[in-house]
Design goal:
The chain is α/β, with parallel strands linked by helices. It has eight helices and six strands. The strands form two sheets. A four-stranded mixed beta sheet has the order 1-4-2-3, covered by helices on one side. Strands 5-6 form a two-stranded antiparallel sheet. Helix 2 packs across helix 8. The protein is globular and about 50 Å long. The mean pLDDT is 92.
Length: 214
């Protein structure tokens, strides 16, 4: 949904492409997913625990993406502001985010802005399930490792989305996720960058509904 929307001719997508650069790695576990695994690679590695020191041989996708991120971070011409790792969640419902904890209170508060905006745009995204933590078990995740590497103008998140369903605020009934619902959440994630960077005034004409692109 994110990719389809960003490359579409929607007025919001055009504004986002004109003002922001998106680097997208659509799949970090292609061999594992091909075999039906949703967590482990072909060699049995949980890839989202090896960001600290990925091996070019054992974790080639992580190694390549990490090199790209570090290269961008060290380039004075690039302002690397967001890292969002997208996962499915096997037990919780809705979409929600994991973020990092910082000693700097202002930085911590600024980190909460994007998920709060996303919650306003997506009925299936839950800010109450969003969590900011420093769990030692997750020290090897992309979100934790890069949160410690990048500077205080960078924000690192894991976007988790339920395998099963979501509950709309103010209701109690679970709504099963469909392929279109997942796509819609992706479009809403992309649209949230318009709000975050306050680019709304640059969109030509009234904000049209985001199409069901595929």
């Amino acid at each position: 949904g994110i990719i389809d929307f960003l490359v579409s001719q929607h007025p919001i997508a055009k504004v986002l492409r004109d003002h922001l650069v998106f680097k997208i790695a659509p799949m970090l576990n292609p061999d594992g997913v091909y075999l039906g695994n949703y967590r482990c690679s072909l060699m049995g590695f949980d890839l989202n625990r090896h960001w600290t020191n990925p091996s070019a041989w054992a974790h080639p996708t992580l190694h390549g993406v990490k090199q790209l991120i570090v290269q961008m971070y060290n380039d004075p011409k690039i302002n690397l502001e967001f890292y969002i790792d997208i996962h499915a969640h096997s037990t919780m419902m809705n979409g929600f985010m994991y973020g990092n904890i910082f000693e700097d209170e202002e930085r911590f508060q600024r980190q909460a802005v994007f998920p709060k905006l996303l919650c306003q745009n997506a009925e299936d995204f839950s800010y109450s399930s969003t969590s900011f933590n420093r769990d030692a078990v997750k020290a090897g995740t992309g979100r934790r490792f890069l949160g410690g590497l990048l500077n205080d103008t960078s924000y690192c998140y894991t976007l988790e989305v339920s395998f099963y369903s979501y509950i709309v605020a103010g209701t109690t009934s679970a709504v099963p996720y469909t392929e279109e619902a997942y796509m819609k959440l992706g479009r809403n994630v992309a649209r949230t960058f318009l709000d975050y960077y306050r680019l709304n005034a640059l969109v030509e004409g009234p904000l049209a509904p985001i199409p069901k692109t595929r």
